[in-house]
Design a protein that fits this description.
The protein is built from one helix and 36 strands. The protein has about 425 residues and is an all-beta fold. The strands form nine sheets. It has a six-stranded antiparallel β-sheet, with no helix packed on it.
Length: about 425
C-alpha cells in the first residue's frame, strides 16, 4: 500500500481511455470530463477537535510503520492511529490497545513522549499511562498535506486544501476546465504524486553502534520518516528535512528546515551522521551541529524507492522499481563504502526481486524482498553477499524489519512476524500476529 504526497507539477500518466475531451471556444482553455478520485474533506476545526484516545485492541488491517521501545511494538494503522503490542514475551505478543490518531503515518518516541504526524500537524503525546494518552503539544501546519491511499486506476481530481484535510475518496465523473496556455498537459489532472511507501526509513543497526539510547529512544524500521538523534527530531516534509528541538520532550519546538532539492523518503542515523534515502540517490548530512544538519556528500542512483541502513564503514541501500518512485526496471541491493564520509562509492550491486525495508546487525543483513519474502545474509564479505544467504522465508510478503538483540521484528502484508536469530543456522519463528484481509 502506498501513501502519496502532493507535488505541484504535471502528472504525465493518466489513463487516456478515461478522458473525454471537449473544447471550449476559448483556445487557452479546455474542458476535460473524466472519472476520478474525488476528495472527501474534514474541516480543520473538526479535525483538530478529534480526541486522541486509547481504545480496545483492533485487528491489524492496513499497516504502516513499525517502532520498538521499552518492550512494546508500535504499529501504524495508516491514517488511523497506532496499535500497541506488549512484546514482553515475543513468543506470545499481546495486542493491548489502539491509540486513535487521525491522519497518522509516522512514529518516534523519546522517554514517555510519542511524536506523531496528524495530517499537517505534529503532536507530542504523553504515553506514561498508555491507557490515557495526553496531547502535550500540537504544532499546527508544520507538514505538507499528505493523502490517504486511493484507487490508482483513476486520476485524482483537483484538491482544495482550504476545505480541510483529505480523509477519504469517492469515485465520480467530473468536468474540469483547465487553462492550458503555456502548459503541457495530458489527461485530466495537473498533479504529480510521489510515493512515500506505507512505512519510511531507519533501522537500528546493532543498537550500541548508533546513537539510540535503549531506554530513552525507540528503534524504527528502515522505512522511517521520523528519527531522533540527541535532543532533536528529524522529519521528512516533501523535499525538506524538518528539525524539531525536543530537549523539553513534552514541548517540541520547530527548528530549521533543510532543503535537499530531492524527493526524499527515508531517514537513518548512524554515529553523528544522517543518511537520507531519496528517489535519486543517498544523501549524507553531518549532525555535528544537530540543530542544523550540514550536507556532506551524496551517491546518485537510478530513480527508485530507496531505504538505507548503515553499519561500520558501509551503507546498504535497496532500490525498488515498478512503483510511484521508481522509473527503472531494476531491483537491487547496493553496498556503498562510506569510510570516507565525504566521498562514498559503490562497492557492488546485487539483484533482488522487489526489495522494501532492510536491517543490519553485526554483519547479518536482513532484506524484506516483497513477494519473495524475508532474506537473511552474512554480509561479512561485501563482495560475496549473494553467495552467503543464511535463510530465506519465501512464503510471506515482507515490508520492513527491526533486528535488535537477536530478535527480528518484521511487518508484512500478512502480519507482524518475530524471529529469534541468536542461532543463525536455526532461525526460529516465534510468533505471528496476522493482518485481517
Amino acid at each position: 500500500m502506498k501513501i502519496l504526497k502532493l507535488k505541484n507539477t504535471l502528472q504525465l500518466a493518466v489513463i487516456l481511455s478515461l478522458v473525454l475531451f471537449s473544447y471550449s471556444c476559448d483556445k487557452s482553455t479546455e474542458k476535460f470530463t473524466y472519472v476520478a478520485n474525488v476528495p472527501i474533506y474534514m474541516d480543520y476545526d473538526e479535525f483538530r477537535a478529534t480526541a486522541i484516545t486509547f481504545e480496545a485492541p483492533m485487528p491489524l488491517e492496513n499497516t504502516g510503520k513499525i517502532y520498538f521501545k521499552g518492550g512494546k511494538i508500535y504499529v501504524n494503522e495508516l491514517f488511523k492511529g497506532i496499535h500497541v503490542i506488549d512484546n514482553s514475551d515475543p513468543t506470545a505478543p499481546n495486542n493491548i490497545g489502539f491509540i486513535s490518531i487521525p491522519g497518522n503515518v509516522d512514529i518516534a518516541i523519546k522517554g514517555n513522549i510519542l511524536y506523531v504526524d496528524s495530517y499537517i500537524d505534529l503532536l507530542a503525546i504523553d504515553i506514561s499511562n498508555i491507557n490515557n494518552p495526553q496531547v502535550t503539544t500540537r504544532l499546527e501546519n508544520v507538514f505538507e498535506p499528505s493523502l490517504p491511499p486511493f484507487d490508482e486506476t483513476f486520476p485524482v481530481a483537483p484538491l482544495d486544501h482550504d476545505q480541510g484535510v483529505v480523509i477519504d475518496w469517492k469515485i465520480e465523473k467530473i468536468t474540469e476546465k483547465i487553462d492550458v496556455t503555456g502548459n503541457y498537459y495530458y489527461g485530466g489532472t495537473r498533479w504529480l504524486f510521489t510515493e512515500v511507501d506505507a512505512l519510511s526509513a531507519n533501522s537500528p543497526g546493532s543498537g550500541t553502534k548508533t546513537y539510540f539510547v535503549p531506554n530513552a529512544v525507540g528503534v524504527a524500521g528502515s522505512m522511517a520518516r521520523f528519527i531522533i538523534f540527541s535532543d532533536y527530531l528529524y522529519t521528512i516534509n516533501a523535499e525538506d528535512i524538518k528539525v524539531f528541538n525536543i530537549s523539553n520532550t513534552p514541548e517540541p519546538q520547530e527548528g530549521a528546515s533543510v532543503e535537499t532539492a530531492r524527493i526524499i523518503e527515508t531517514l537513518f542515523v548512524y554515529n553523528d551522521n544522517l543518511f537520507v534515502g531519496s528517489t535519486t540517490g543517498m544523501l549524507i548530512y553531518s549532525l555535528g551541529n544537530p540543530a542544523n544538519p550540514t550536507y556532506l556528500s551524496m551517491l546518485d542512483h537510478f530513480r527508485s524507492c530507496d531505504p538505507v541502513v548503515v553499519e561500520g564503514d558501509y551503507a546498504y541501500v535497496t532500490l525498488r522499481a515498478g512503483s510511484g518512485c521508481g522509473s527503472s526496471n531494476s531491483n537491487q541491493l547496493d553496498v556503498v563504502n562510506i569510510a570516507n564520509i565525504t566521498s562514498p562509492y559503490l562497492v557492488k550491486s546485487y539483484s533482488m526481486t522487489g526489495p522494501y525495508g532492510l536491517g543490519i546487525d553485526n554483519d547479518v543483513l536482513f532484506i524484506c524482498d516483497g513477494d519473495d519474502g524475508l532474506k537473511v545474509f552474512d554480509a561479512t564479505d561485501k563482495t560475496r553477499i549473494s553467495n552467503n544467504m543464511i535463510k530465506h522465508f519465501p512464503a510471506i510478503n515482507a515490508f520492513d524489519i527491526i533486528p535488535y538483540n537477536n530478535l527480528a521484528m518484521m511487518i508484512g502484508s500478512d502480519g507482524l512476524y518475530q524471529y529469534n536469530y541468536s542461532d543463525l543456522d536455526n532461525m526460529e519463528l516465534l510468533s505471528v500476529i496476522p493482518i485481517v484481509k
